[in-house]
Every structure is written in C-alpha cells, then in structure tokens.
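#structure-requests
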Amino acid sequence: MEKSLRYDSLKKEVVFIDQRDLPHKKTDVACSTFDSMREAIAHMKLRGAPLIGVAGAFGLLLWCNENLNEIKSMDMKFFLKKLSDASELMSKTRPTAVNLRWACERVVCEASKMPGESPLEIVKHIEALCRKMDEQDIEICEAIGLHGAAYLEKNHGRNLRVLTHCNAGALATCGYGTALGVIRSLYGSGALKHVLADETRPYLQGARITAFELCEDKIPYFLICDNMAGWLMKKGEVDVVVTGADRIAANGDSANKIGTYSLSVLAHENKIPFYIAAPKSTFDVKIKTGDLIPIEERSEIEVTTIGAVRIAPHGARVKNPAFDVTPAKYIHGIITEAGVIEKPFTSSIKKLFGD
C-alpha cells in the first residue's frame, strides 16, 4: 500500500486518498487550511484513530501557515494561546478516538517547550514534528505487526483463519496498519490461511477499504456480512479475532467501531481468542473504565443510505452510534508496539506506561 498521507512543503498542503470513494476510484484530496482538514476528518474523507491523530497535528501546521503574517507579530504567550485554542477545536472534531487529542496536545506541548524561540521558528519545529509523527506511526505499526504475528503463531499455531472488523489497516494509519498490520505480518511469515473481513455497517469500511487493501496486497480473504460472524464461529471456521481500537481505558476496556462488542461476546461464547491491536497513543490512562469513553453519534444518512441510494423509508427514526466498548473481560490480549499486554490489564497497562 502507498502512504496514507503526505505533506507538500512547497504548496503547504496535506494530500491523501478520499476514502469515501474506495474501492471504485482513488481520488486525492488536498487540504491547505485548518478548516478543510477539520472538515475532512469530520466527514471521514480520512479516518482511523492513528491517521486522524497525525492528520490533526498537520491541521495545526496548516493553521500556522494560514496565520503566518499575524504570527510574526505575536508574542510567545499569545501564540501558544491561539495554538492551544486551535488544538482544542481540532480535538473535538471526532470525540471517541483519543489519538486526535493526543497528537494535537503533543504539538502544543512541544511548542511550549521552546520559550527562547520565536513563533516563526516554532512553526518550523511543528512541521518537523508532524513529519516525525508520520514516520513514527509507520514504525509503530510495523512493530505491532511483528509482535502480534509472533505471539499468535506461538500461542495459536499456523494456518490461521483470522476475523477482523472495520478497517485497521494502512488507510487507518500512516501506513501498514494495526490489526491489519498483524495480519500482514502473519501472511508474510506464512502463518495465515485467510482473513474473514466483516463488511462493517453502516459505513462499510470492511467491504470498501479492508477488502481493497487485502486485494492490493494479494492476501487471501473472504468478505462476510456482519451478521454471519457468529455462525461461522460456531461452525469452527474462525481461529482468532483481531480488531483495532480508538480508545483503551486504564482497565483494558476498548472502544472500537460499532459491532466490535458483539464480536467479542460471540468469540467468548465460542471460546475463540479475541485481540485488540493498537499503539500506546490509543490508551487513555486518565479514565478508569470504558464507561467514561465518549461515543460519537453520526448522521442518520449513513444508516438510511448505501452510497447515494436510500434503503430505508423516508421518516425512519435512526440511531447511529459510531463506536461501542468491549469490556476487558472479553479481550484475550492487547497488541502494542512494545509487545502483547496480557491480563491483568490494569497492572500491565500501568507497567507499559512506567507507573
């Protein structure tokens, strides 16, 4: 897969694939303003917790570029206040994935550590930091893939049939992927038989994007409807489940795309190991349990239409929570760039963060 996002320093714009058009066509989107990046994230032109984190950081760089003339005359305190305000606004664009807030706060934090520099010099530093975060995300995902593949092969054997939900691949990150990174590494080591990819209603990220990535990499897979997973588990056609996450609480409760909780219950009932794959930036150790994770509610149009075609009667009342929370008790392990976290999660997560 090609890189998910790139920054053109000459044009001062961020370029990425419009994921809404996949798999039918690959259309590039170029964002040159803070508001256009917020709009792109809000309307899922790009999505995936790690990717929108880095995109949000680049959005702050775009804010700096837009306001460069004013920034020249700002004192340090006022500049940091305005940058912090922009960070808060960007962080609220999609509330569930903690990576967005993490990345934006990292930009502000790094900027505040340079009191001896002028605001213009700090803008240059912000560009370097954004590029670094982009590169680091790929390295992190590759490490997640290697740790996860080695662990799964050791504990569950080879010729694995892996079920995944939504898209936690290269297009949900800056490259390679989290859950799909584990699958890529399993395929590379010869330990994968095939993937079972949930379609992932209502936005069909599995059918449109995960299937697209698997096709591109020539990884064997079957696309299944979301409501087929339980029956296939019961028939013994699933060996392990691996999904991504958008926020992980201090006790291991994990928010991910709606439908993940159902899969975890089905996996538990059928004695199938269920894993989360996510970077450390997805952990929110400030919250004790998943009950405190905010769940984004999205437009009813995503449920009542597929593409541009309406599938429900006009006037239908709709609920559209974009995420659900899987309790830690249903999670076998959490695959990170530092290795696989096992139960008890609360103490393991504290150790991961050096507490």
